[in-house]
């Protein structure tokens, strides 16, 4: 288990890397620049993340944790499931559309390098989101079946992520649709 200093250093490196990724893109991100921004050696960055891809993945996962804090807050503000899901999806879509890092990953000059973090190599991101949403939902609505919530949470997270990657409708419209899908599924699947 890491010390407080280790966690603080890791956070500093991730903040620096996120800023550099948003400004420069993946191809122009250098481990030395991340090290210089924090005042450590390049080897320290490699020791923490192994390689540039590991650093980029850690940045996206850290960013995802911040999103999930907002999702938890949105879910908590509503007693009924449909309103809660709609609020969480709206929050996610609106926040993602204004996020400089997301914009760089999705639309930047070298976005094809990082796009797999949201598509073909998104398993860590999807797993973390699904697990956190399931934990929150069964805590807030204890009558829901955990396995059923896990099934629909997986689908809802993937659907929301697809709208982050390729927006088709206004966030509120998408949020109402996903909320309707979730509540219908849970209603039909309930014993």
UniProtKB/TrEMBL annotation:
Keywords: DNA-binding. This is TetR/AcrR family transcriptional regulator. Residues 30-49 bind DNA. It comes from Actinomadura alba. SUPFAM superfamilies: Homeodomain-like. The keyword DNA-binding applies. InterPro entries: AlkX_C, Homeodomain-like_sf, HTH-type_TetR-like_transc_reg, HTH_TetR. Gene3D superfamilies: Tetracycline Repressor, domain 2 (1.10.357.10).
